[in-house]
Amino acid sequence: EGGGVLTHVRSGKVRSAPADFDGGFGSIAAGPPPTKTKHGHEDGGGGGLVTVTVASGAVVGKIDEAGAMRDLRRLPSIGEITARALIEAGVKSVYELKLDHSSPRGVSRSILTEKQSRCVAISDDLLSEVTASEVEEMRARLLAAARSIRVFGDDDDKNSAWEVVNVGGGRRSDASHDADFIVSHPLLVRNSDMDGVLTRVIGAMGDSILREDTDFHMLSIGRLKEYWRGVKDTGKNKKGDPKHGFQGNNDCYDKLYGIYRTANGAHRRIDVVLVPRCMLPFALIGWTGSKQYNRFLRRFAIDERGLILTSHGLHRTRDRRTVGQTPDDGSLELGLAPEPPAPSLDANGRDWWPPGWDPGRTIECERDVFELLGVPYKEP
Asked: Which tens digits make up the pLDDT trace of 167-187?
């Protein structure tokens, strides 16, 4: 400490030390090594407390790396790499980051980019709970922007038919420090209908969305082909198990992760997702959540029905046919032949239509998805 030497630690290992380090400068004691659960996930070990001591034997402190990582990554633009660098520099929370960054000699100044620094400056706003009135302001502004770009020319009736739904914690009536919205139109049915639309909608929002060149503003466009590649991929995963198509809570929709400036000048996190109408029921389920609820529902689909449930669609594991829908046109580009909606599967893997279903009926709402899974529908 007296010599001004900084030792970086992560998961119980010395990451850097003085040039003349001979192993006697200090020691680090971590928790037990990780163990594998029956599902193959690591449990315990490196995510625990890391104890740092100096040569004299005095304990400098304990770093809960997993807790520090979670806290720092609450702030938009702070990803895993940046959070790890901050932890190694001794900054373990957003509170400490604010204090450090306000100092001319703060270590975080050499770690953060300009956009990340701007997020630190407005961190109190970004981590505060979004109010109901602010959510409604954002929803109304998005709806007005979608209507204003006049996708359907001078047809006012069609241009006014846009829908903007608040999803995420807001739809579940949970408190949240961000606002998530799904934007769709009844006549924009498939992926090819969406080209360039989200960019125009965000542009029509004006200065209420902070700019990409100076602030946190992530626009993801044109990734739906990745989804259909995942559906078609029947290979093995890293553990040697059969792949189940596109997995997890992620999706390939056109979307914005950004910051909204309210009429009162507050800054709030906003996610905007543009969804083709044919996929809307699945997007509503996936984006409403919660994440754990989605994991349970998708695990049930795989284990009990042999179905792949995603935020885009429902597919049979054995032949990758799309259940209750005609595959989106993006699949045709990858060689998935057009075919009528496939039946669901029962618990024994046999073709199965729920009561009231037949090949002529397609999925129109969230309740339809639950019926094809054979589980009761649950309101958000």
From this structure: 998 888 887 889 999 999 999
What pTM did the predictor assign? 0.80
**pLDDT one-digit tens code per residue, 91-108:** 999 999 999 999 999 999
**Positions of E strands within the chain:** 8-10, 13-16, 26-29, 35-36, 42-43, 49-54, 59-64, 163-167, 178-184, 218-220, 254-261, 267-274, 307-309, 314-316, 344-345, 351-352
Mean pLDDT computed over every residue of the chain: 82
Residue 1 has which token pair?
Answer: 């400490």
DSSP collapsed to 3 states, 44-112: CCCCCEEEEEECCCCEEEEEEHHHHHHHHCCCCCCCHHHHHHHHHCCCCCHHHHHHHHCCCCCHHHHCC
Mapped onto helix, strand or coil, the DSSP state of residue 299 is helix
Closest C-alpha among 197, 223, 204 to residue 148: 204
What's the rounded Cα separation, in Å, for the pair 297 and 377?
A: 11
How is the beta sheet containing 178-184 ordered, strand by strand?
163-167, 178-184, 267-274, 254-261, 218-220
